[in-house]
Amino acid sequence: MTKTQTQTGNTEPETTPSTPSTTPREGGTADTVIDEVRTVMARDGISQNQVAKESGVKQTTFNLFINGKYGADPKNIAAKLEKWLASHRAKSDATRAMPPARPWTSTPTSERILAALGYAQMAGDITIVYGAAGLGKTVTAREYARRFPNVWTVTASAARTCSVSMTLEEVLLALGVRELPSGAARMAREAVRKMEGSNGLLIIDEAQNLCVSALDEIRSLHDATGVGVAFLGNEVVYARMTGGSRAAYLDRLFSRIGKRVKLLRPDADDIAAVAAAHGVRDAASLRLLAEIGARPGGLRSVVKTVRLALMMAQDGPLDAGHIRAAHRDLEGC
């Protein structure tokens, strides 16, 4: 058995790959790392698959290592897991220091969005909610889906919904179909079969990422099933339906839109509601948050600023100084 030099300058025995090893490393033996990882997994409810994925260790290798059956030199695997442990500790510490994100807060703007979604589902109609980013369209859609049955959400993207077939795949996945039929026509028929008579609502989030033909296909599904459809997105999706260069057949979609909700920016009541949900009520802080909310990012920027400011306050009273410092930190100033 030869000697090998560690980063700390200590010499340690080098093992052969044929037998399990507990080679000492910077943090101790492989057995120590195994014990630490098992403790964290049990305490925080983390699966082996998640640890393997987050640490960059192959699943099969991790399973052998964590069960003490890894026959090769464990030094590299143990080092990766030590890095994962350090990262997990840092993340846990930060999570404890920072107040948890609220999944949804009722604001005047979010209530307008809820009303539009409710109208679309109740009336079996098409609604479009469009405008600036960071005003709570996505989180409000999630809240609506949490409250009501037969609500299916597709998040459009340039990679996943750039054609009719790809869009139909995403619709079927949202409907719970896992064995997808081949071909756009078969997928459309399956989507109709699943939605017909359901009194459901199909939400297309980030709808500006749908191509023109995919927009028309969603219109076709609505016509065939009578389900409500809600398009959520920025100004682009509305311009695509109304602009002079749009495909002629989008007239059929535009004429079917029953309700339009345009969102420009959060108002003072929106910001006050978000601030109050986080315990912020003093006038100076609200004035600063109103300035932040008027910039690109809207309520999303307000929430991020308040959460960081609360962490900076460290359980003490939060004031405008914390708000200002948090915003500057987030802006990189």
Report on this model:
The chain is of the alpha/beta class. Helix content is 54%, strand content 11%. The strands form two sheets. It has a five-stranded parallel β-sheet, sandwiched between helices. The chain starts with a strand and ends with a helix. It contains 15 helices and seven strands. A hairpin with a 5-residue loop joins strand 1 and strand 2. The N terminus is likely disordered. The longest helix is centred in the N-terminal third of the chain and has 23 residues. The chain has three domains: 93 residues, 434 Repressor (Amino-terminal Domain) (Orthogonal Bundle); 145 residues, P-loop containing nucleotide triphosphate hydrolases (Rossmann fold, 3-Layer(aba) Sandwich); 64 residues. It is flat and about 70 Å long.
